[in-house]
């Protein structure tokens, strides 16, 4: 073989080798590129960012068995809230009548007393209390005994009659302070579940201690403490119920909780009647359910995943959502990552969105003030009508049962209307309807001064049902108006305004014992004014629940701009 052939052969082999090496490099590069693409896809899968609403809608369900169980568990606390709020209808009621004592001492059984026994003991509360003011002490006695009510035991009649309003007023004033305390505690420190636990324990304790009150002043102080303690129940119940369901179910779920409030209200006459001669026994009986609930049911309640997220506890929030999804046999993907609002903390102990405040955010402050003014009027009328039941010429137990029964259609009607009507319109019309009904009651007040008036009772019951709808809807409306990091505080402020109105209503009830027409006139006028205020609030039907004030402001601004553009087009 020639040298030229050998050289050519060597060159050809070298070329083939280089070609193969080149192809091999290309193959390796292609494999590396594919591996990088696969890695990129995996990384992308690991960052499936979703917010709480999206996880609930996709994996948990808008409203299913786990959410229903959560709602039922937390709503039991409404029963205690109702019982402790309205117990004074019976414990602080005007006694049914009086009678002259049969005594061996002629001075204690005067002819004046004997001549007025029929009218005094006839059961007309205004007359019976008024007639005894001129009698000598010890010449007469209450028909039900001195231990039947606080008024009978501590002689809260005649020149002392306005003292009878102090315990109930202080109860609602205590609720005002309690709302501020629990609202801050639930948002910034303990969360909703632990705050509910604390409120139930304190409610049971203060209710039991109230039964040992030696005089009106200690009794009033303990009623203040009881009002402070129970105020955390309603706040946490509502928020815990509504924060785990889809947006279209929030209104209805919020209404379902009020069934339990109605149940507590309806249970009172049946507990009070057997204890009608001992008002202290009634307090001792209603102090037991909160204690049982605390140890048996509260541990089964789940913390709000929204609160956990805002507090930077992402892992715990996902665990709660996973448990809810597990009830439907679903499992959250491993690559889900909850979206954290920009103001949320990722540390421990600091408040999410700590630089945000309702009062320093102009739009939120206006919204809160309007909501509080609306709540003041609604609370005044809602609680005032219930406490004013003794001023109707009907059996007290029957009147309370009828009023409590009217709460049931109020919850049903409110829940149905919330599913397809605007919150703003429903709030306004229900409050105005309550006011009109109260004004109509004035017509029958004079006619029913001595005899029972079914038309008055019917109109009063309709007015109370309308007030109950406005009262219930106001909570749902407030939940939807404010974001997670201030929601409990906002609901607590609404509750404070409701309690402030309620704290003034007992004074009007005492006046109503002398002039029922005046009490109904004030109730009616205030309800109508409150109804007109709600038209200044924005509509929230089907709106998302935002997490921070900044997020809500930005997204609502975007929606406003889109709406304006669509209007122009």
Sequence-ordered SSE layout with sheet pairings:
Elements: H1 3-46, E1 48-50, H2 52-60, H3 65-86, H4 88-91, E2 98-100, H5 111-115, H6 117-120, H7 125-131, E3 140-142, H8 150-154, H9 166-188, H10 191-210, H11 216-242, H12 250-272, H13 279-286, H14 288-296, H15 305-310, H16 314-326, E4 336-338, H17 362-387, H18 396-420, H19 423-445, H20 454-481, H21 484-512, H22 516-533, H23 549-568
Parallel strand pairs: 1-4
Antiparallel strand pairs: 2-3
Helix pairs in contact: 2-16, 3-11, 3-12, 9-10, 9-11, 9-21, 10-11, 10-13, 10-14, 11-12, 11-21, 12-18, 12-20, 17-20, 17-21, 17-22, 18-20, 19-20, 19-22, 20-21, 21-22
Structural class by sheet pairing and helices? mainly alpha
> CATH homologous superfamily of the largest domain?
MFS general substrate transporter like domains
In round numbers, the mean pLDDT is 82
Low-pLDDT segments, ≥5 res: 1-11, 35-44, 117-128, 343-352
The CATH class of the largest domain: Mainly Alpha
Major beta sheet summary: 2 strands, parallel
Count of strand segments: 4
Helix content: 55-70%
Strand content: under 5%
The strand order across the widest sheet is 1-4
Net shape:
globular
Number of helices: 23
> Can you tell me the number of structural domains?
2
Through-space gap between termini: 90 Å
The CATH level-2 architecture of the largest domain is identified as Up-down Bundle
Oligomeric grouping of the chains? single chain
> Taking Cα atoms only, what radius of gyration do you get, to the nearest Å?
33 Å
